[in-house]
Amino acid sequence: MVNYLHSLRRRRRKRLAHQHTQHSGEQRVAVIGLGRFGSSLANELMHRGWDVLGIDTDTRLVQKYSDQLTHSAVADCTDPEVLRQLGVHEFTSAVVGIGTDVQASILVSSNLLEAEVPNIWAKAISRQHGQILERLGVHHVVLPEHEMGERVAHLVTGRMLDFIEFDDDYALVKTVAPDIATGVPLGESHVRTKYGVTVVGIKRPGEDFTYATAETVVQKGDVIVVTGKTHAVETFAELS
Which residues form the RCK C-terminal domain (predicted)? Predict the structure, then answer.
């Protein structure tokens, strides 16, 4: 029923072994559907050090991406027993990247909900499809024309509340303020000189977003908006 192909990519796992030993089960994700969206998302998560199980009914696609992912399988996840055999119920995150087969998308999402996977992301091909998924109880519905795989990968990791990348390797990120930026005025925290990012906005629980200045004192639990080079803002967000 389930055919595992190339369970481990030896060279990648050696390169990421140190990172993986520090990861909990929360940094494993199942990506069901390895089309353009799913494969882009899966590869980005791999680059960020996550363990990725890629699943598709198309043997050709699984073979194409098997060497790029931690695990891969040819399987039909519309069958809840297949999900159980793959151990997806033990994952804390799953992404349904199935393309034009709306029925399969809905069935797989339902199976994941039934398996009580805590964080389910599902691709919708239309707003109507998205509404159905939301009514089922899917936690995060993605419309690909608005959300690209790379952006969603940043959000799935849980370090960022929002991520927008612009041209010239420049990004804007919304994240919970890390401890190194709290308790003192931003001008004294030296966030810009140490980490290469600029805090441009701040939001406290129950309050609106406000512009940040050098005199702004960020408090623990505040949500902040930072800008800078993509790598810099990614590194800074990992501190939260």
Answer: 158-240
